[in-house]
Structure formats: C-alpha cells, structure tokens
Amino acid sequence: MKYENIRKQVLDAILEAVEQGLIKGTSGNIALRDDVDDVVAITPSGIPYKGMKPEDIAIVDLDGNWLDGPYKPSSEVPMHTAVLRARPDIKATVHTHAMYATIMAMGEGTELKPITPPQCEFVPVGVVPFTMPGSNDVADKVVEALGKDGRAVLIKNHGMFCCGKNMKAAMAATEYTEEMAVTTMYAKMLGVYEPMPEEAVRKMKELIAADQAV
Ligand SMILES: [Zn+2]
Predict the structure, then answer these.
(1) Which of 19, 116, 136, 176 has its CA 20 to 30 A from that of 195?
(2) According to the 3-state scheme, what is the secondary structure of 7-74?
(3) How many angstroms does the Cα of residue 203 sit away from the middle of ligand 1?
(4) How much distance in Å is there from the Cα of 74 to the middle of ligand 1?
(5) Which residues are catalytic?
(6) Which fold has domain 4-213?
C-alpha cells in the first residue's frame, strides 16, 4: 500500500475524534500531508469511519486531484488542500462539526477566549461566515482567516477547522477549541464567565512560542 504511514495516522485520528464525540456519523474530515511527496491522505466521503481500513483513506495531490484509494475523497478537500498550500508550516488539518464549537460559531459576541492556560495556544482566530460546504469560497475564507499563524477557526452554521505541524498538534487544536467552547458556554449560562486576563494570555503565548523554538 502506498503512503501507509500517513493513511494510518489519518485513520487513527478520525477514530479518536469519533471516540471523543468530536465527529458523528460521516461528518468531519481529517487530512495529513506526506513528509516527502506533495500528496495528502484524507478521509473518504460518506463512508462510516468505524471499521475503515488504512487503504480506504484517499490520497490526493495538493490541488485536490484524487490519486489513490477506493472511495472518493471528502467533499471538503478544497478546504484542507488550500490551507496546506498556503501554510508550509502545517502538515495536518482537522475539520469537525463538534457540537459546542458549532453553537459558539452562531451568535454575535461569542468570541472564544482562553479560560485555562493550555487553551492559549489554540485560540480560534474568529468566525468565518457561512458559505457552501466543499466550495472554493469557504476554502479561501478559512485560509484568509487563519492567516500566517492561526491554528483554529470557527465556521458559522458548520463547525470548525483546526491545523498543526503534525497530527498530534492538529488534534490538540481541535480538542482545546471544543473545550474552550464548552467551558465558555456553561460559564456564560451560569453568569460566572471570566476568561484569563489578557496579560496572562500574552505571557502564556510567549512561553509556548519559546518552547516551540527549542
Ligand atoms: Zn463540514
């Protein structure tokens, strides 16, 4: 099997996301760029993830053309490949319709701010307005919103898109974005919402950046 390593990593990640409740049914998709070749392993479209095998994961090029695998690649290929083309620092991309992030992507004034220190690394850069799923339009808007160093963005009436230098980092961005959405929503409902002070967030981001530079 070609590209077994990246196919296995994508499969493991999607099963983990299903296990954690971040992905339900066949919604959501995950992609990973190969370290050597300009190819991307991505979950297939409309196939249940449970029971899937590594060879069922599709292989596309960086323009989204289907190269290998028995099933059609995810319809959200343009969003994943657009981010991978625009951001050489990014290898893995995760798109989910996780419930709380999706709720927080709907309202005005629901900007997510860190509530706990680990969340500081993954603060979503904002909310992308709704455009048709699978379109180049939504892909362009996600790329624009993420900019040079964004790790997570919410998409109105759709979900979220997260990325990282490897699969572990992209999954962490997804998990912490959902955690931020959960904690923010319940704290606001209880009337006890108090995000971390901005100065502390700034210092945490410096510490995180320094760690990554080592
Ligand atoms: Zn979607």
Answers:
(1) 19
(2) HHHHHHHHHHHHHCCCCCCCCCEEEEECCCCCEEEECECCCCCCCCCHHHCEEEECCCCEEECCCCEC
(3) 34
(4) 9
(5) 76
(6) L-fuculose-1-phosphate Aldolase (3.40.225)
